[in-house]
Design a protein that fits this description.
This protein is α/β, with parallel strands linked by helices. It has four domains: 100 residues, Rossmann fold (3-Layer(aba) Sandwich); 33 residues; 113 residues, Tetrapyrrole methylase, N-terminal domain (Cobalt-precorrin-4 Transmethylase, domain 1, 3-Layer(aba) Sandwich); 120 residues, Tetrapyrrole methylase, C-terminal domain (Methyltransferase, Cobalt-precorrin-4 Transmethylase, Domain 2). It has 13 helices and 17 strands. The strands form four sheets. The protein has a five-stranded parallel beta sheet with strand order 3-2-1-4-5, sandwiched between helices. Strands 10-9-11-8-12 form a five-stranded parallel beta sheet, sandwiched between helices. Strands 13-14-17-15-16 form a five-stranded mixed beta sheet, with helices on both faces. The chain is globular and about 80 Å long. The mean pLDDT is 94. It binds S-adenosyl-L-homocysteine.
């Protein structure tokens, strides 16, 4: 049995750890949650402050049950819990007891959600076993394709920086449901190994012509397949909207009337430094980080970067696609005021088995990178955070 709680009053007695774990699902179900408890956890405070629940700061009184559709008991004082049960019984309201399943009249199952399907496993006293069964079902659902494709249109999915485990749960679920997958060069190959044989795979890196023509061709493929009724996953390295042309593809789809879903990804601009032990921000060291593309040099009239401003900044600079122009970029930053001894580092193929990194200074990084034979994809980090090193 499932309950439709949307807009209905649910009483939560208790404001501690158990209530904290139970309330989010009730919020997701649209319930009007009223918490009665002398104390409240910080997370529950957050829900109350945001207007997602109300709080009465005192112990339970039998009259609290009146008008509720469901009562949750999340306290560990047996006598007080019994009092709630008795009041619920009298008002004919179902009552969930976190402390005593025998005394309850309703139970919360272990749940897994998979797209539009929810699987609930109810236990008869062995909660641990129910959760294990739930996990098995969740695992099976994750690897099994959906019976009929419930998705339509195009999903722009961030694949993460390289480690196949760094795609999001949502991204992975959509990938398993795709009829067509269009992937970039930087997408982790391991993610593509699991695609069902009938999935059409388009390698965007192999599309000939110049970059502009190739992009038009990709847009055309996305729109055309989606209009055929197929579910298209456009898989991109890192995050789709960080130097990934995701915006252009979203616009092309929207103009053709194709629904677009964006699934953000773990961007290499933060992840690659992190995996080399460099936090892009650090308390007391920097209050900013700036992500810059170095694919056009600082002397090019095409550059949209304000290099003098960048040279004046004190915080972290994260440079993507910057290896080729690194000598000119480093030189320009120094000319614009950034000290040559500013710590700098480079991270090649972050998060993969081939990850390499080296540390240097702004003045020497270009020469050190050349000498070490660092190759793309690589990220350069400039700023005092490089010294924080963990
Ligand atoms: N959308 C991507 C960036 C695409 S631009 C993201 O959010 O990560 C491509 C550039 O990203 C590469 O030239 C390189 O600078 C950087 N890059 C991507 N993956 C990387 C990785 N695993 N390690 C280091 N740099 C990476």
């Amino acid at each position: 049995m499932g309950l439709k709680l949307d807009g209905r009053r649910v009483l939560m007695v208790g404001g501690g750890a158990v209530a904290t774990r139970r309330v989010p699902a009730l919020i997701a179900a649209g319930a009007r949650i009223e918490i009665v408890s002398p104390e409240l956890s910080p997370a529950l405070h957050g829900h109350v402050d945001a207007g997602r629940a109300t709080w009465t700061a005192r112990r339970f009184e039998p009259g609290d049950v009146e008008g509720a559709w469901l009562v949750h008991v999340a306290i560990d004082d047996p006598a007080a819990a019994e009092q709630v049960s008795a009041a619920a019984e009298e008002h004919r309201v179902f009552c969930v007891r976190a402390d005593d399943r025998e005394a309850a009249t309703a139970w919360t199952p272990a749940v897994t959600r998979h797209g539009q399907v929810t699987v609930a496993v109810t236990d008869a006293g062995d909660r641990r076993r129910a959760m294990a069964v739930r996990d098995l079902v969740a695992h099976a659902l994750e690897s099994a394709p959906p019976a009929a494709n419930e998705y339509k249109g195009v999903a722009l999915v961030g694949a993460g920086p390289g480690d196949p485990e760094l795609i999001t749960v949502k991204g992975r679920r959509l990938l398993a449901a795709a009829d067509v997958v269009v992937a970039d060069r930087l997408v982790p190959g391991m993610l593509l190994g699991d695609l069902r044989p009938e999935v059409e795979f388009v390698d965007a890196a192999k599309i000939p012509y110049g970059p502009q023509k190739a992009q038009e061709e990709i847009n055309r493929i996305l729109v055309e397949r989606a209009l055929e009724g197929k579910f298209v996953v456009r898989l991109k390295g890192g995050d789709p909207f960080v130097f990934g042309r995701g915006g252009e593809e979203a616009i092309a789809c929207a103009e053709a009337g194709v629904p677009v879903l964006v699934v953000p990804g773990v961007t290499s601009s933060i992840a690659a430094p992190a995996l080399a032990g460099i936090p892009v921000t650090h308390r007391g060291v920097t209050h900013e980080f700036t992500v810059v593309s170095g694919h056009v040099g600082p002397d090019s009239p095409e550059s949209l970067v304000d290099w003098p401003a960048l040279g004046r900044l004190r915080g972290t600079i994260v440079l993507l696609m910057g290896l080729k122009n690194l000598p000119k970029i480093a030189e320009r930053l120094i000319a614009e005021g950034r000290p040559a001894e500013t710590p700098a580092a480079v991270v090649q193929e972050g998060s993969t088995a081939h990850q390499r990194s080296l540390r240097s200074t702004l003045g020497s990084i270009a020469a050190d990178v050349a000498e070490a034979g660092i190759r793309p994809p690589a990220i350069v980090v400039i700023g005092d955070v490089v010294h924080v090193g963990v």
